Amino acid sequence: MGHSKDKTHEDHQKWGLLKDVKKIVEYVEPDVVVTENVLQVRKDDVYDEFVQTLEDLGYHVNDDEDKKVYCPEYGIAQNRKRWVMMASKEGPISLPDRLYEDESEYPTVRETIGHLPPLQAGEVHPEHDLHRARTLSDKNLERIRNMDPGGDWRLWEEEGLDHLLADCHKKSSGRSYKAPYSRMEPDEVAPTITTQFYNYGSGRFGHYDTDQDRALSLLEGALLQTFPEDYDFYDEWDDVGVKNLGRLIGNAVPPLLGEYIGRGILSHVGAEVPAVSAGVADD
């Protein structure tokens, strides 16, 4: 496979789990193998070795165009791009057809989280423990109160609010970083939900509603990842905390994407494929 290799991945540490998956496949030889990863994985030798092992074992691997997943096309309201490799001993395999081809049909941030009750920084909703937003410093409160949905730090510069600029934005090398300390746009898809989506300064994670001066709540991040609204992540809050939940939610394969992958496998093996509608995955 003639990929241009990414030399920044010294010793392949970032993709080391693929080596473990390769060992499992070599030992078990399951009928179907699926991996989901960031797009960059395809540029590493470890990935090429993994695919070559599958082909040597007689697996049919889905083609590259099928592997490239843009989540809004599958009903997931975030700008998440993933590389989904599917392989089968039984014959050619692929993901189901995309749900949406037209951008105007993509689900939006407002459609996904707009029904939730308003919340301010540092608050926890009394009826839903997961609907909680982190406290903001005085400076970050001033930043978000002077930020429009879809805008960026250049708004402060234009308004003469240079004291709100982050240090990186004062350097020529950092002026291209537009997302930190900005608000999402309500009628677009969200940015990729990362493990730090609850931090205002970590990306375009400010709430689009200018009456809610805060970053996303944990519940909003989970909904944008297509977890059910009543999904139980924990028994006791003190056993988890914000950072652990942020990591669980941000690192997850969106459940709705997992469902589509599962439907592709069911169709491939000739099993009945249940109907599915776009939106947040059911329990």
3D structure, described in words:
This protein has two domains: 10-105, Vaccinia Virus protein VP39 (Rossmann fold), CATH 3.40.50; 109-251, DNA Methylase, Chain A, domain 2. The protein is built from nine helices and four strands; from the N terminus they run H-E-H-E-H-E-E-H-H-H-H-H-H. The protein has helices at 16-28, 45-56, 64-67, 109-113, 138-145, 154-158, 218-224, 242-251, 255-268, and strands spanning 32-37, 60-61, 68-70, 81-88. Strands 1, 2, 3 and 4 form a four-stranded antiparallel sheet that branches. The longest helix has 14 residues, at 255-268. Mean pLDDT is 90; it is low at 1-12 and 278-283. It comes from Haloarcula amylolytica JCM 13557.
Keywords:
single chain; 283 residues; alpha+beta; Rossmann fold; DNA Methylase, Chain A, domain 2; 2 domains; 4-stranded antiparallel sheet; 9 helices; globular; disordered C terminus; DNA binding
The averaged pLDDT comes out at: 90
**CATH topological fold name of the largest domain:** DNA Methylase, Chain A, domain 2
The CATH C-level class name of the largest domain? Alpha Beta
Low-confidence stretches: 1-12, 278-283
Radius of gyration equals 21 Å
> What is the count of DSSP helices, taking H or I runs of 4+ residues?
9
**What is the succession of H and E elements?**
HEHEHEEHHHHHH
Q: Helicity level, as a percent range?
A: 25-40%
Number of strands: 4
Estimate the strand proportion: 5-15%
Q: What is the CATH architecture term of the largest domain?
A: Alpha-Beta Complex
Number of domains: 2
